[in-house]
Design a protein that fits this description.
Elements: E1 9-13, E2 19-24, E3 29-34, E4 39-44, E5 51-56, E6 62-67, E7 72-77, E8 83-88, E9 96-99, E10 105-109, E11 115-120, E12 126-131, E13 137-142, E14 148-153, E15 157-162, E16 167-173, E17 179-184, E18 190-195, E19 202-207, E20 213-218, E21 223-228, E22 234-238, E23 242-246, E24 252-257, E25 262-268, E26 273-278, E27 283-288, E28 292-295
Antiparallel strand pairs: 1-2, 2-3, 3-4, 5-6, 6-7, 7-8, 9-10, 10-11, 11-12, 13-14, 14-15, 15-16, 17-18, 18-19, 19-20, 21-22, 22-23, 23-24, 25-26, 26-27, 27-28
Length: 296
């Protein structure tokens, strides 16, 4: 059962593909659905004004839940249902959280301060602080070697941060509106992005080496989330309620109608499982075994 009636929402898929967590903006509850046992459980956080971002740890043991207003992070043990740790950040709403591939680093950012914090996980000791002029960061992404952190947010810029020098290395600009979603392809040479600006109806492909815009692909609707798959095709969700699979030339390989504006999505590249949270409060899980199938 999804959290309903939200103006915004998030959903997270565990690395094992077995668990789906969901929450609505300003709700204190996070619902965890087990796709294997078909059971659900509810975590009630101590965030006074509700939650926002949620992420599973890479080892599937923890769920990290950020606050909608007070800048705190709560870490919950998924197996026991007990809160493991609470950490303050000095920010307000925490919109963006990302793990590196190894799962030993967690980057967080949001509103209230112009900074990005990187913690050691699960100890949550502060490892890096990055100073940015964007006080509303919406997306974070580590590269495969943990040498760079990529950020985007409520301006037209995508920034590459060098984690060795803690300096800004590169800026990609030219995306109208708020850049809300970014992802790398399998070898890290390409980056896909999209804007919250529904008037553009585009996702973009960039070279991470040169910073050049390689292609802008119109998909006929505003893009809520975009991902590179292990096959280097692009998987995106849109405001018309569709999941689209697109190759790098812009050809639509598949289009799956979900039925309502998709607010958020998460994607497991290895297992090729995608889960979506729609404005009607429904959560859908789609798998490609061997063709795309939808489960609600």
């Amino acid at each position: 059962q999804a959290q309903r009636g939200a103006a915004d929402a998030q959903v997270a898929l565990s690395p094992s593909g077995k668990l789906v967590a969901s929450t609505s903006y300003y709700s204190k509850n996070v619902v965890i659905a087990n796709r294997v046992t078909h059971s659900t459980s509810i975590l009630t956080t101590n965030h006074p004004n509700g939650t926002f971002a949620i992420r599973f740890s890479k080892d599937n043991h923890y769920l990290v839940i950020s606050s909608a207003e007070d800048g705190n992070i709560e870490i919950w043990n998924v197996n026991t249902g007990a809160r493991y740790r609470k950490v303050g950040t000095g920010m307000e709403a925490l919109f963006a959280m990302a793990f590196n591939d190894a799962g030993n680093l967690l980057a967080v950012a949001g509103t209230g301060t112009s900074k990005i914090l990187v913690f050691n996980f699960p100890a949550m000791t502060l490892q890096y602080t990055l100073a940015t002029d964007n006080s509303n960061v919406r997306g974070l992404l580590f590269d495969q070697n943990d040498t760079r952190l990529i950020s985007c947010g409520n301006n037209d810029k995508i920034r590459f941060w060098n984690l060795g020098t803690l300096q800004l290395e590169k800026t990609l600009s030219g995306t109208p509106g708020h850049v809300g979603t970014i992802d790398l392809n399998t070898d890290g040479t390409l980056l896909t992005s999209s804007s919250y600006d529904a008037t553009t109806n585009q996702l973009k492909i960039w070279s991470t080496t040169t910073g050049d815009l390689l292609r802008a692909i119109s998909i006929g609707a505003g893009v809520s989330r975009t991902f590179f798959g292990a096959d280097n095709n692009i998987y995106c969700t849109d405001y018309n309620g569709n999941v689209q699979v697109i190759d790098q030339s812009g050809n639509i390989l598949n289009k799956i109608p979900i039925g309502s504006l998709i607010l958020y999505a998460d994607f497991n590249k290895t297992l090729k499982i995608l889960t979506t949270f729609s404005a009607d409060g429904n959560i859908n899980v789609l798998t490609s075994a061997p063709v795309w199938q939808e489960y609600q």
